[in-house]
């Protein structure tokens, strides 16, 4: 977290970032003040300080809010504060005694970022950027997470992570609304998981990332596709599907404009890889289910 005594603070200088020379003030988030045009929440700052932000005039710093990074709730669910860093999440997962714990580290590693970024970047920032390749979106959507959002007047609401990100860089977040935390339900944490990721080049941004979760209580299977698509797609099957059913369901759920298109992968390639990785995940979690390799070509 950044701690500021004046507007021109530079704790991120070692990351090779730029000054935000339009910012006139950095306000402590604990101090209530009316939201105004040009305001932005400041978490780790790794995105804010990575490229020009000419629209910004004031940053509202969340680093001193004192939110506990990770909290086990009485019902067994896990609440992750928006200000929890990737490093804190990784350290927690190393000793987290649940079947889904390995998925946390896999998604942390999907950042392909230096330790400097790990120690600054936050879960909330990754979700609120809404980028298709955001691995914290992948993690929390796959584990059926829900966002706790707080408006300027104090009103709170919850929305599923899979519905929170609505497109590339778009999210269900009102003016001045704050992402307070994400809660992962206890049942999701008991699931067996499978993880697949692909990039066009080594240490590159994810071109497709697919996560499967198998519920040990009812045998249901969820397949979550991110990075290849402009928003998360979480498909739930009451019983493990065949390869053909999975292929048809995924291909029918994602429309042509929803396959992401940028320098890190063309839509046709992303679709092909998402379908291929989804079948690999299905086969790993349900090895005795009928196989239909011909379904994914």
From TrEMBL:
<dbReference type="Pfam" id="PF00941">
    <property type="entry name" value="FAD_binding_5"/>
</dbReference>
<dbReference type="InterPro" id="IPR016166">
    <property type="entry name" value="FAD-bd_PCMH"/>
</dbReference>
<dbReference type="InterPro" id="IPR036318">
    <property type="entry name" value="FAD-bd_PCMH-like_sf"/>
</dbReference>
<protein>
    <submittedName>
        <fullName>FAD binding domain-containing protein</fullName>
    </submittedName>
</protein>
<dbReference type="InterPro" id="IPR002346">
    <property type="entry name" value="Mopterin_DH_FAD-bd"/>
</dbReference>
<feature type="domain" description="FAD-binding PCMH-type">
    <location>
        <begin position="7"/>
        <end position="189"/>
    </location>
</feature>
<dbReference type="InterPro" id="IPR016169">
    <property type="entry name" value="FAD-bd_PCMH_sub2"/>
</dbReference>
<dbReference type="InterPro" id="IPR051312">
    <property type="entry name" value="Diverse_Substr_Oxidored"/>
</dbReference>
């Amino acid at each position: 977290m950044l701690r500021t005594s004046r507007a021109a603070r530079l704790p991120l200088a070692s990351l090779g970032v730029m000054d935000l020379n339009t910012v006139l003030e950095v306000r402590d988030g604990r101090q209530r003040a009316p939201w105004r045009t040009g305001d932005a929440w400041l978490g780790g700052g790794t995105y804010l300080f990575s490229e020009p932000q000419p629209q910004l005039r004031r940053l509202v710093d969340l680093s001193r809010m004192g939110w506990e990074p990770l909290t086990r709730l009485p019902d067994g669910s896990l609440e992750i504060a928006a200000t929890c860093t990737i490093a804190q999440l990784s350290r927690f997962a190393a000793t987290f005694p649940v079947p889904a714990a390995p998925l946390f580290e896999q998604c942390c590693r999907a950042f392909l970022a230096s330790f400097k970024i790990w120690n600054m970047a936050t879960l909330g920032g990754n979700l609120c950027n809404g980028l298709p390749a955001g691995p914290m979106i992948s993690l929390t959507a796959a584990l059926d997470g829900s966002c706790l959002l707080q408006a300027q007047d104090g009103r709170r609401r919850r929305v599923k992570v899979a519905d929170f990100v609505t497109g590339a860089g778009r999210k269900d977040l009102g003016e001045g609304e704050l992402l307070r935390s994400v809660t992962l339900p206890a049942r999701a944490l008991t699931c067996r998981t499978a993880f697949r990721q692909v990039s066009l080049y080594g240490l590159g941004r994810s071109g497709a990332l697919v996560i499967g979760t198998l519920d040990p209580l009812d045998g249901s299977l969820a397949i979550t596709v991110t990075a290849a698509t402009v928003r998360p797609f979480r498909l739930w099957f009451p019983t493990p599907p065949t390869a053909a059913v999975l292929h048809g369901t995924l291909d029918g759920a994602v429309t042509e404009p929803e396959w992401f298109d940028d320098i890190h992968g063309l839509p046709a390639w992303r679709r092909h890889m998402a379908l291929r990785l989804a079948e690999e995940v299905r086969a790993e979690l349900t090895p005795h289910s009928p196989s239909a390799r011909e379904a994914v070509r």
